[in-house]
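Changelog note: in this version the structure field was regenerated for every chain. One regenerated record is shown below for reference.
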Amino acid sequence: MPGPAPSTSRLTDLRGLTAAGWRRIRTDAFGAYPAGARLERILRSPNFTDGAFRNPVPTRRLVYERSPLEITRAQLAADKARRVPARPIPVHRLNAAELATPPASGLRLTWLGHATVLVELDGRRVLFDPVWGVRCSPFPGIGPKRLHPVPIRLADLGPVDVVVISHDHYDHLDMTTIRSLIGSGARFAAPLGVGAHLEHWGVPAERITELDWWESAELAGLTLTATPARHYCSRGPRTDPMMLWASWAVAGPGHRVFHSGDTGYFPGFERIGELLGPFDATMTQVGAYSRFWPEVHMTPEEGVRAHLDVRGGVLLPIHWATFNLAPHPWEEPAERTLAAAAELGATVAVPLPGAPFEPAEPPAPRLWWRAVAALPEPVEELAQTPAAEPVPTHEDEVPA
C-alpha cells in the first residue's frame, strides 16, 4: 500500500535528530497514524488517490524553483523588526462572567488569537482550532512563540459543546490544549485521519467524529459539514498523506458560520456558498502568506474574495497577529483586509483578541494594531488602545 505504514506513533518520521534533540522532544505531540477501521475509511475516500489525499485543484506546498535553503535565506533577509509588533499587543481580558450572558442575537464570536475562535450559536458553544500553548511546536522552548497572552484561561472558558479541528498543524492542533479539553465532555469534529491524533492523546473514540469533504454530522443540535480547502497536513518533517484538511460550515436552527482553516484560494468557495450559505459570519484566514507558498495560504485580498464567494455576512479575519509565521509585516494582514473589504463592499470586524461581538451588530473598525505595530513611519489619528498585558513567561505554560 502506498504511503507510510500504520503505527501508533510517528517517531520514525524524525530520523537524523541528535541525541540531545531526542531528549527534548515531547514525543506524544507528533500524534499517531490512522489504523484499522479509520485507515480503511481513508482508503475508500474519493479524495484519497495514489496513496495520498489530494487538493481540490492541483497544489504545490512550495512554489520555488531553487532549494529550500534559499527560501530560508530569503525569509531571514526580511525586515525582522516589521514581523513582530514594536509594543505589547493589547488584549481584552475575557472572563467567565462576560460569557455567562447569552448573546442577544443568538450568535456571538470571540477571537482568542490566531485561528482560535469561540462561537456561541443558537445556545451551543463551538470552539475552533483551540491553541492555548505558548509555542506552536512539538519541541520545548523551540518554535514560533505566542506574541500575546491567551485572553482567557481555558478553565474559565466555561462549557464547550463541540471542538472543531481544521487540520493537524501545530498552530491549529495543540496536544496540551486538547488534553485539557477532554474533561469538558465536548464532542470533537475533525477531518478524516486527524482523529488518530485525538485518540492517541486520550480523547474517547466515541466522542470523535471524522468527516470527509461534504460529509455532515449532527452534534449537540448543530449540523457540521467538512468542506474542501486547499492545504496539507504534517506534524513531522514530511507532508502527511494520510490526514485530511478541511474548512467547516456549522449551522444551527437560526444561524450559520464558516471557518476557513488554512487554505489557498480556489474556485470551490463559490460551491460552498451555493450549497451551505449564506453565512452570518465567516472566520477567514488572511495571514501567514508568502510568495514562496501562494497556493496553500490566502492573501488578505483572496481572503475577502473567499468570504464573499461563500456568501458571508461579517468577516472576522483570523490567522494573524499571534504567531510570527511568514515574512510579511505583522500588521499588514489587517490593513490589507480592510482595504480589500472597502473596495469590494464586505463588512469586516477586527476586534481585540478576546473581545466578543455579535455579527448582528458588528463593532465599528478600530485600528488598534497601528498603535503597537513597528510601522515604517508615524500613523496619524491612531485609535485609542487599552494597555496591553504581559505575555506569559513560562515557556510551556498552558493556562489551565
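Spot check on this record: The first strand starts at residue 48 and ends at 49. The chain has a mean pLDDT of 88.
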